[in-house]
Amino acid sequence: MSYADRFEQCQVPEVDDLHGFYAVKLVVPLVPDIRFFRHKKYFPGSDDHSDRGYNCFLGHIKIGAFRLERDRSDLADGLDVVKIIYDDPTNPGFLQRLTDEVREERGGCYFCRGVYDIFGRPTNVMYFTLTKLD
Questions:
Q1: 54 or 33, which is more confident
Q2: Residues 104, 12: Cα–Cα separation, whole Å
Q3: Which of 77, 88, 105, 126 could form a disulfide with 65 if both were Cys (CB 3.0 to 4.6 A apart)?
Q4: How far apart are CA 2 and CA 22, in angstroms?
Q5: Is residue 18 within 8 Å of 41, Cβ to Cβ?
């Protein structure tokens, strides 16, 4: 099964279901899923004082503020997804052009794709997984 087929077969999660820390693993053909620099994402919950999440590397380096919204994908398949939107003025310009798209594979495990705006055209540039950390 292709990664695109795998992504399509997943379900759309509710935005509120994503809260807390999740391990991020890059999915690469013929190689086990890779987790670079202990990468994780933090999704704020209803009890947080912010509506912004962030990426965390090496346990304490925060980069890439984002907000979440449920919407249709910018890609041609038009699937319903939860978008992780990095278009935030605190992010470097190159990062502001990235939107991750999330679909739920099974309880607490998500299959995702990175969509990058290349010359005004949304392009799928990677697949990755999110797994809830305790």
A1: 54
A2: 6
A3: 88
A4: 24
A5: no
